[in-house]
Structure formats: C-alpha cells, structure tokens
UniProtKB/TrEMBL annotation:
It comes from Lichenifustis flavocetrariae. Its cofactor is Mg(2+). The keyword Oxidoreductase does not apply. It holds the Pfam family Inositol_P. It catalyses: a myo-inositol phosphate + H2O = myo-inositol + phosphate. GO terms for molecular function: inositol monophosphate 1-phosphatase activity; metal ion binding. It is an enzyme of class 3 (hydrolase). InterPro entries: IMPase, Inositol_monoP_metal-BS, Inositol_monophosphatase-like, Inositol_monophosphatase_CS, Inositol_monophosphatase_SuhB. Belongs to the inositol monophosphatase superfamily. GO terms for biological process: inositol metabolic process; phosphatidylinositol phosphate biosynthetic process; signal transduction. SUPFAM superfamilies: Carbohydrate phosphatase. The keyword Lipoprotein does not apply. Gene3D superfamilies: 3.40.190.80, Fructose-1,6-Bisphosphatase, subunit A, domain 1. This is Inositol-1-monophosphatase.
Length: 264
C-alpha cells in the first residue's frame, strides 16, 4: 500500500473522474462522439474526465505542468514537474460498452517518472506505484510473472489504426515474429491496462508501436516497480518519447527484443 500525500491526491482525482466515466458508460448511446482520425475517436466522456483530473490536480499541486491526450500541453510555472494524463485509455472499448478502459496518471519529475496510477472504474481496479515503493493493485503488492520461456508466455499487444499505413510493414513483421514464438497473444485495447497486466503477472510481456507518453508513463513505472523491464522496441531506455514499447520480466523482455530484431 502507498499512503503518501501525493498518492492520496492522485487516487482522489482518479476516483472523481472515474465516477463520471462510470455514469457516462451507462449512457453511451447519448454521448457526443467526434472522430480525430480513421479509427480514432474522442467522446464527451474523455473530455469531462480530463477536465476533472486537470482541475483536481491543479488545485492540489499548483504550478505543475500537464501533457494530456485531449488538451495537449499546459506549461506550468514549476518546470520540473509534469503530469502525463490519459483520461480514458481504451476509448474504442468504452464506446462499445466493453469494461476494459482506464484512467492513467503519471507524475514526471526532472524527466524521471516518480509516480503512476492506472484506474479502471468499471472493475474498481486501482493500480498505484511510486519510485522505490513497489507496485500495488488495490492493497496487493505486484510482481511480474516468473515464466522464462516465450513459448509458454501470453503477450499483450496493440494494433495501430489502419490509417497509420506507414507502420504496417514493421507492424506485420514484428507481430508475425512474436506470434510465431509466443504461447499466444492478446489485444486488450488499452495500453495502460496492458502494462498493468504485465505488472500483475497476468501477461508475461507486452509490445506496441505508436504509443504516446500519456498511454504508458504510469504503466512503465508500475512494471519496473513490479520487478519488470521496459524499453523501446529497439532496446532503448527512453520509452516516454520512444514511440514503441516492450515490457516483461528480464528473460521475456530480452527474448522479445531478440525476436523483434530478427523480424527485420
Ligand atoms: C489507445 C489504446 C490502445 C492503443 C492505442 C491507444 P486511447 O488509447 O491505448 O490500446 O493500441 O495506440 O491510442 O485512444 O483509447 O486513449
Ligand atoms: Ca484516443
Ligand atoms: Ca491512450
Ligand atoms: Ca485516451
């Protein structure tokens, strides 16, 4: 359990925004939906949740900056602290009434992720972490899975929307290579919950391209604090701005990177 003042602020903000998402899930047929690009939607629920998070976190920590999926960058007066926020990760699932979506909040201090929270209001699963304090699901400490063999592993992944055609050859080659060696693969539709699933040992690994810092910042720290490894698809540590991600325990992570290298 993490009982810091910071985590109290983060959980309170997530719970407040989560109540709104739960209410909106019950009314999805009346939700205002706009299309950001092919296969990329935003709803009034995303925007309402983001507004709640912005207001609550600004009030509790005045001056911190924000990088948000819908609202973009809001510069703070405190240049060393930035919140990376996805108010609704898994909008497509949400729109279809699938209860697989989450709020993702991370705090970055001087380029280091220092705290992360992933909350699925539909299942009441609250994942929290702070640097050096471990990773937790509700009150249970998390540990990544111990499996070492890719052939027995369950690997999460993401599928980029059709419009991002330039990534398709890379995506197909990498997906095919992983599928050929993994026990099996899954696509949840929420990058944050994919990473939370790795931290919880439900998935052995996770791979995705075309991700943004707000999708993964909280999940990266959660996996690392649960004893796992996270890098870009070409093995670099700088995943926040790297655009691709591979996560797993030491062995699965290493084997996934080797598999991806051979895919090209
Ligand atoms: C999306 C989800 C999805 C991932 C996409 C993301 P959104 O976020 O995390 O799993 O494959 O790349 O954009 O748009 O639902 O917040
Ligand atoms: Ca989106
Ligand atoms: Ca997202
Ligand atoms: Ca989102």
């Amino acid at each position: 359990m993490i009982r810091s003042a910071l985590m109290t602020v983060m959980t309170a903000a997530a719970q407040k925004a989560g109540r709104g998402l739960k209410r909106d899930l019950g009314e999805i047929e009346n939700l205002q939906v706009s299309i950001k690009g092919p296969g990329d939607f935003v709803t009034a629920a995303d925007k309402r949740a983001e507004k709640v998070l912005f207001e609550e976190l600004s009030r509790a920590r005045p001056g911190y900056g924000f990088i948000m999926e819908e609202g973009g960058v809001v510069e703070g007066t405190d240049k060393s602290h930035t919140w990376h926020i996805d108010p609704l990760d898994g909008t497509t699932n949400f729109l279809h009434g699938l209860p697989v979506f989450a709020i993702s909040i991370a705090l970055v201090r001087d380029e280091q992720i220092v705290a992360g929270l992933i909350f699925n209001p539909a299942t009441d699963e609250m994942y929290v972490t702070e640097k050096g304090q471990g990773a937790f699901l509700n009150n249970t400490r998390l540990r990544v899975a111990a499996r070492r063999n890719l052939a027995e592993s369950l690997i999460g992944c993401g599928i980029p929307p059709l419009a991002r055609a330039k990534h398709h050859p890379v995506f197909r080659a990498e997906f095919g290579a992983l599928l050929a060696v993994a026990g099996n693969m899954r696509r949840l539709g929420s990058a944050a919950l994919d990473l939370a699933s790795v931290a919880a040992g439900r998935f052995d690994g996770y791979w995705e391209r075309n991700i943004h810092s707000w999708d993964v910042a909280a999940g990266i720290l959660l996996v690392r604090e649960a004893g796992g490894f996270v890098s870009t698809a070409d093995g670099k540590d700088d995943v926040l701005d790297g655009g691709s991600i591979v996560a797993g325990n030491e062995y699965i992570h290493r084997n996934m990177l080797a598999t991806l290298r051979q895919a090209h």
